[in-house]
Write a structure and sequence with these properties.
The protein is α/β, with parallel strands linked by helices. The protein contains six helices and seven strands. The radius of gyration is 15 Å and the shape is globular.
Length: 184
Amino acid sequence: MFLVVGQGNPGEAYARTRHNVGFMVLDRLGLPFRKKGEALVAEARGGLFVKPLTYYNLTGRVVAPLARFYKIPPERILVVHDEMDLPLGRLRFRAGGSAAGNRGVASIAEALGTTGFHRLRIGIGKPPAKELGAAYVLSPFSEEEAPILARVLEAAEKAVWCWVEEGLLPCADRFNGLDLRSGG
């Protein structure tokens, strides 16, 4: 069994924001999500796909109990989240490592007691100034960014299914080098 977690904030006000790119990826999978506790959950291909209904910075509160209940080890957990350290148009698989300031990832690591889970980091680019980070992640993508975002979401959808079927290393080889900033 595996667990794929899309990070985001609940509610229409956040639906199209940069912080909700994890939800956007899971929405593309075409799965039937249903409410289960503090999450929307879908079961498919022998695993669970989860969109926590807690706020982004509290996602560990949903992930850890599910992982414990279903006895899912950290290396069978994939967290799909936005990443300011990557430009829009890039995505990157990663195993373990620090949260690098991402409070949602930190929440999961703290609740699980490990950073050994896998991540699919979706680039959203940096804010115009460091102190604008919180406002930036809660802002929507611009019209100019929409074509790039569409390509990224399509690739991320394929990347999630790749991870489910093949595991981290083959998918990292296939997707980490992609640059989807131009249409060519």
